[in-house]
Amino acid sequence: MATANFSPALRAPASSRPYTKANRGYGKRSSPNQRPAHADDFMLLPERERYIAGYVDHLPDGAAMDIKSLAKSIPLYGQMAVGSALRALGVAGHLRYAQCRVEERGQVRWVTRTFWSRTARDNEWWDAFLEAENNRASQEAAATTVPQLPPQVPTEAPAPQTDAESPAPVTPAEPATQPTSPAPVPVVPQQRTPDPTPGHPTPAYLALAQLGRIEPRLPLSATDCTALEPLAAQWFARGVDADYLTHALTSGLPAQVGSPIGLVRRRLHDKIPPHLPTTPTPATPGSPVRRLMMECTGCGTPGPSEALPDGLCRTCRKPDPDAASEQATGANAERNVHSLVAELRGMLKHP
């Protein structure tokens, strides 16, 4: 007895191979307040979109959701079919792309975030969700920009001794008429910051000490590293790391270096990077810096959410007239061919 399948949505086959993981911080991001998974999810979508939506919905957060990764994991459809399906899922309210502003080591770049929702959402819900994500990203960036210094515990000054607490004076054995010399005042040595020892070198000292192993033409002795350490420390104070310093000192060297310490000292003076402010530049009043901006699902054009209804820009929403005419012409030609074949078959039936 055959058993009927009441599930209208096509499910992706279970695969034992691991899914493709995206880089840390990228990949699939599930939206909040979704309904539990059910058999009738995505049943209103076409067959191809149902299949791809079911596969994407079973992926964990952090899995790669780009077109190439999905086409590689789903052998039934190629990259063009997957791209068209993702665009349709965006129009249906299950998918949104957004560009996020990321600041690392004084550099600003934009990366693409992918948000997925099993429950179909309208444009108003996505606008409110992206606005909340934008506020959260701005708060996180402000928290990481301003360093939190540890609270300083004030040290209490020693209380002066009172007459009751001070010891009783001892009567000298000599007569009072004999003059006594004043007691010498003890000299308290001034505390100073200890110089870095070879057991605890600074990052600047380490970068200079390893310079000769990376570039044999720049061997520096321990005395040379100690003399050049203050200059290299200025580079680290301006936000660069050891790799940046080493590349700046070793690039474009002559064939022979007569005085390694002289060349390194000259480059530390001449190639010192500019001083970048540690606090972000204040924005113009009334125009806050947006750290999250929606991206068109079709062409990837960034813009505000109100300018991208259904996740599509104006160009992608309007159909191409040439493509529409070509599709209509092809459909008419296909109908003409079918009618011609039907007529030929009818003629062959007559004696």
What does this structure look like?
The protein has 351 residues and is an alpha+beta fold. Among the domains are: 28-145, Orthogonal Bundle (Arc Repressor Mutant, subunit A); 203-251 and 258-270, no CATH class. It is built from 11 helices and 5 strands, in the order βαααββααααααββαα. It has helices spanning 47-58, 67-73, 79-92, 123-145, 203-209, 211-214, 222-237, 242-250, 260-270, 314-317, 321-349; strands at 28-30, 95-104, 107-116, 292-295, 302-303. The protein has a 5-stranded mixed β-sheet with strand order 1-3-2-4-5. A hairpin with a 2-residue loop joins strand 2 (95-104) and strand 3 (107-116). The longest helix is centred in the last third of the chain and has 29 residues, at 321-349.
From the spread of the alpha carbons, the general shape counts as elongated
Q: What count of helical segments does DSSP give? A: 11
CATH fold-level name of the domain at 28-145: Arc Repressor Mutant, subunit A
The share of residues in extended strands comes to 5-15%
Q: End-to-end span in angstroms?
A: 48 Å
Question: Can you tell me the CATH class of the domain at 28-145?
Answer: Mainly Alpha
State the assembly state of the protein chains.
Answer: single chain
